[in-house]
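Protein modeling request. Please complete all fields; requests missing the sequence field cannot be processed.
Requester role: graduate student
Desired output: 3D structure, token encoding
Chains: 1
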Amino acid sequence: MIATSTVRTVEEVVYPPTAPGAELYPALDLANSILTTSGGNVIDLLDTPHAATRWLQDHGLLPPEGRLHETCATRLRTMRQHLRALLAARITRTLPSREAVNAINDALTRVPTAAPLRWDSSTGPLRVPKHPTDQLVDHALGLLAADAADLLTTPDADRLTTCDSPPCTRYLLRNGRRQWCSTRCGDRARAARAYARRTRSTT
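Delivered output (203 residues):
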């Protein structure tokens, strides 16, 4: 997102840079497409069909002419919810819900080019292609699901963690001792710890 030289856009002010590891795993970036600001406000980067379309296009998962409708944007947001549940389960070494696992597997097994069989009462059997947008979204969700499965089953999964700067809820791949998703969160965490130390020393 590009701002002019004199005006900072809302996106530039609010949206933090990509979290460590998200440049390698689009699924990790999808999980982080819902943000909690330092003021506690929640910002959803997929909150409208236009925003969801832009997110997929920015990640090379939707052609420039592709356009999502609300139904498809909802499917992407639902995938994100399940993915966040799986990441949380991997980090805490707990069992995720069956629904979250099934959602990833369902996306993995969809075949966007296969037209389902229908049986019309007057004309008999016929094959009706899915809506083109549905096919595009099936393809995008399938790629994201495969990416998520790779992330969760490779050694990188041991580096998964959450940003250590509340109220941020983003995920990242830890690099050494660093557990912040951005410089902004790191500065906020250090400032909070310095304030806590000063407070203890004056009591």
